[in-house]
Amino acid sequence: MKMLFGGIEAGGTKFVCGVSDEQLQIIERVSFPTTTPAETMAQVLTFFDQYQGQLQGIGVGSFGPIDIKENSATYGYITSTPKLPWQQYDFVGTLKAAYDLPIAWTTDVNAACYGEYVAGHGQGLESVIYYTIGTGVGGGAVVQGEFLAGFSHPEMGHMLMQPYPDDDFAGNCPFHGNCLEGLAAGPAIEKRLGVKAQTLAPKEPFWKIEADYLAQCVYNTTLMYAPEQIILGGGVMKQPQLLPLVKAAFLKKLQGYVAIPAIDEYLKTPALGDNAGLTGCLALAKKSADSPVSSTSVL
Ligand code: ADP
Ligand code: ZN
């Protein structure tokens, strides 16, 4: 019988579930909207029930904040999310009750980072940091196969920004105003300009402002962690003119202060595109099936 692995990319807008073989080749992939835990998880279980007996483990990359501390009473829960029906939801417990399998549990952006690390641009490197610039901004770091984590997972998307010269947009993060997410995520762009980011022309002057905020993020990340590679993903990065603008603004800010790897290798959009997250979940499922007791965080 074939050994299969399950992945759940649990996003605030939609869930993507998939099953792969040992080479992480995706055999089936389904997607449905994120509604209530009862409704959405029923769809998750219906999907994986088909593979009972073949599945060796399931990897979950979830929207958060989530509890990743293995000795915590609420390990495996989604915690203080603004999505009310999911607050204090026991995600891993629900899966464990249904399946006697190792369940890997991390943030959605950590999963995407891991996907790129094992099967995308990060292959062969030891340290990769991944940001998603979409409905929110999130960041995750993998160092030698483990996730960077401390008292909890990082919340890199909420780093504070220096306002772009004469930018009077206050930002829309309810906690911090002008953090990266509050200034540069898709909904912030929409609030600032009154149209969805995907409708803006490539020559729209705003992209220089967006690039400046992302360049500040890359600058901070470079000097904080000195990773071998930084990947910028998420819907907003589908604007092809954006990455070159970010590179130029970042190099200007850095002023040659540290010798980074060649910029085109250092700063990339994801090789796996929209499959980075699911691939990471599948790879984590495989890893947890291989070594169910190993921890997956460093610090
Ligand atoms: P999510 O964050 O929900 O997983 P996405 O990464 O697709 O999903 O992010 C959605 C956000 O990205 C929306 O705010 C949308 O306006 C923006 N977006 C999606 N596609 C594009 C595009 N081609 N160009 C610019 N912005 C985009
Ligand atoms: Zn914030």
UniProtKB/TrEMBL annotation:
Record InterPro entries: ATPase_NBD, Carb_Metab_Reg_Kinase/Isom, ROK, ROK_cs
Catalytic activity: D-fructose + ATP = D-fructose 6-phosphate + ADP + H(+)
Names of the cofactor(s): Mg(2+)
EC number per UniProt: 2.7.1.4
UniProt name for this protein: fructokinase
Similarity comment text for this entry: Belongs to the ROK (NagC/XylR) family.
TM regions (residue ranges): none
Keywords: Magnesium, Metal-binding, Zinc
